[in-house]
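Could someone model adenosine monophosphate with this protein?
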Amino acid sequence: MCGVFGLVAHEPVNQLLYDGLQMLQHRGQDAAGIVTAEGNRFHMHKGKGMVREVFRTRNMRDLIGNAGIAHVRYPTAGNAKSSAEAQPFYVSSPFGIVLAHNGNLTNTAELYDTVYREYLRHVNTQSDSEVLLNVFAHELRHTVSRSSTPFHLSIDHIFDAVAQVHKRVRGAYAVVALIAGYGMLAFRDPNGIRPLTLGKAEQNGQTAYAVASENVVFNSLSFDLVRDIAPGEAVFITFDGQLHSRHCAETARLMPCLFEYVYFARPDAVIDGVSVYQARANMGIALADTVKHRINPDEIDVVMPIPDTSRPVAMELAHHLGKPYREGLIKNRYIGRTFIMPGQATRKKSVRQKLNPIPSEFQNKNVLLVDDSIVRGTTSREIVEMVRASGANKIFFASAAPEVRYPNVYGIDMPTRAELIANGRSADEIAREISADACVFQNLDDLERVVRDLNPAIEGFDNSCFSGCYLTGDIDDRYLLALANSR
Ligand code: AMP
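Reply:
Sure, complex below.
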């Protein structure tokens, strides 16, 4: 999972790109990069770390130009990546292209081979995004060289090349790219697994366009959300500000990733027409019914979120159970996400650093704790222990997401099956594992229903980490085994 952002404006974009990346920081804290276009030249700066660590004033000064793209990279546990794998990536031929990508390709190994052996192109990192860039570059070159005007790049060449990319590449990809001297390209995979939105603003009587993983960027930069980029669609904005778009996939369907709504996206984002905040609130309403079936509501004294993501869920859950909503776990907002720490020992310590209990909120109370999801169960076990030590009587644990039982191959970092606490365990067994008195998980049907209620045009979801059904049809046990072995 990563964040991408791109701008074609009528004024320098370096500060805007930096500010936009800050708004996407939650999508990746591992590395950040910006490329700007000044006429035919690209200026690039990228490196490991948070946005505020990667960019110094001197770097910002060098990022000249009125168009640019930017990226924040998601940390992948146990698979530390070098700064060479920070994005965007660059190729010099054809024309000069830079590209940044959110998502994960599922046929990278096969593509890598084709790129190397057939296209005679070199990929210098382990990144599927560099492979994707080389596939696109090859297709663009091929399309242009076959045309009647082989030295001239047209909008149709670009869209034809994207259409070829859709035929060759499988997996999830939301992409922004710049073609030197021409403009900015954005496209989304035919399932629309990862989000991508289009925004615009009036600048000095002209229209500036922006593309971003989440529309939260637009509000902060005084851009307006135009719409989501459709699955399989490509948008090209010339450097003089003309917007073109085309549906480039033979078949496309809107199947966004459910986990974006559960955990990943900011609550103030609207993804594929669905307010993430409202979706989470609705998850709380649906969860209330499931809780009523599993726990005697008379036994619950208080409902409490595990901050921050689950707050809207817990609020509605409390309301629909008719129970008080209280906050007894206080988050230290200066500690990084615990998921990114390698090894369970470090992780255990960081949960304690991150959350601190208010004992008076727990003493002699039966508490229903609410989290967005339980993955390994390390966090929840630690929290239950902490809440118990703070004097709670009974501790119930509710998850806004169903049991996570399968790895995610489309860009969300999930551990291997063996590490998932819900793998091969019932809710009661999970409760025992985390020392809770009961555990309640959202039903997958309920989760899908409450999100789709907010936009009936959504045809379905990538729900693979809950269901084991992988939309791209190319994931089997062998693939998952190889993935597990590579970790
Ligand atoms: P754990 O069960 O200890 O693996 O941690 C679960 C918690 O980590 C959830 O409550 C989320 O807040 C957070 N989380 C879930 N999935 C991810 C992910 N893919 N990347 C980062 N954090 C995650």
